[in-house]
Amino acid sequence: MRLAIALALSAALAGPGYAQSAPPVEVGPPDAPDQRPAFEGQTRAPQPDNPVPVATRIVATGLPKLWALEFLPDGRMLVTANSGSMHILTENGHVGPMIAGVPSVDSRGQGGLLDLALDPDFASNHQIYFSYAEPRGDGVNGTSVATATLELREGNTAALKGVRVIFRQKPGYAGTKHFGSRLAFAPDGTLFVTTGERSDTPIRDSAQALDAGMGKIFRINRDGTVPDDNPFAGREDVQPAIWSYGHRNLQSALVDADGRLWTVEHGPRGGDELNRPQAGLNYGWPVITYGVDYSGAPIGEGLTQMEGMEQPVYYWDPVIAPSGMAQYEGDQFPQWRGRFLVGGLKARAVVVLDVKDDKVVTEAWVPLNARVRDVKVGPDGAVYAVTETGNSSNIVKLVPRKGS
After folding, report:
1. 178 catalytically annotated
2. DSSP symbol at 318
3. Count of CB atoms within 10 A of residue 136's CB?
4. What digits encode the pLDDT tens for the residues 224-252?
5. In a domain? residue 54
6. In the chain, helix, strand, coil percent, each to 5?
7. What is the pTM of this model?
8. Is residue 146 domain-resident?
9. Pick the catalytic residue: 87, 126, 178, 247?
10. I want to staple 401 with a disulfide (CB 3.0 to 4.6 A). Which of 53, 256, 290, 392 is the partner?
11. Is residue 9 part of a domain?
12. CA–CA separation, 96 vs 89, rounded Å?
């Protein structure tokens, strides 16, 4: 039955000029069956004709529940754990002790220590950036970004020195959901910071408010100041660090090989979105969205389009529950070169998107049978996925299957 539904929907979405060579990944019926995409190829893209055979092996197992992974120049891995610890792992997966100097985090619910990014000049300055749910007293918290020098010591030990908060999502909120958050450097050295809209009603409506930090993408300089060419710079009635707004819960972001920002955000039931966020634009949440509320009721008036609000490049219904994102530029998977790799918490897979002319032309899944929290391409050209089961994580390495 599921295959029949997938084939029927695939045929319905195929139109003149739409290359339909294989059905979409078989994921079952949509949560919002009466909604229609705004243009051809906006959802349920076909699978590639020749999917890439992939083999997996466990690099590290039994780790605390992780959020993010970054590769250091020497090939070791730097990771964050939701509980508030940071560790260095060898290429073979040996885990070092907790890195000293990490600030306190609010690890309740979806909070904790979140994303990581290395300074573009890390090789010379050892500076890192990290986001976290910052406790602000009386149960109030918010997504914050700090920078510090990573002082590497013998073995896998290290310490953070000179920790300084350079960004705070304001106002704070007494909740435990939807903190975002991903960090991505642009070629000019500015830093994109994504935040969640904090989930609850009515606080989620603040995603539309330019004087609030919920449901936004921010662009800041490395010292936390606001770039002069930001779209709202110089305005007193808005937060000038805002790059784009009207987002839900952004947990995937990258700057592509051409220097352009891409994000994937969690939708409701149905409605995960791939966007190419541009300066000053409104991406609609919660006024327009694909999908429905968790109760099955419409979100707001149930609208999917409105003048002055941007359409996603692509959306998923049912959702993949995105977390983590990378663009493949290695040598081990030449067929994937340039493609986006998105972690799927619900999909329990790495989702591979071939994007041409800003449209998704194929979508393939590499099942990992676990929630995928982050995805990175290693210096060896392999793909590394942070998976989670319950309160523990593994790091899984993806390589071409022998003989393929």
Report:
1. yes
2. S
3. 17
4. 999 999 999 999 999 999 999 999 999 99
5. no
6. 5, 40, 55
7. 0.94
8. yes
9. 178
10. 53
11. no
12. 6
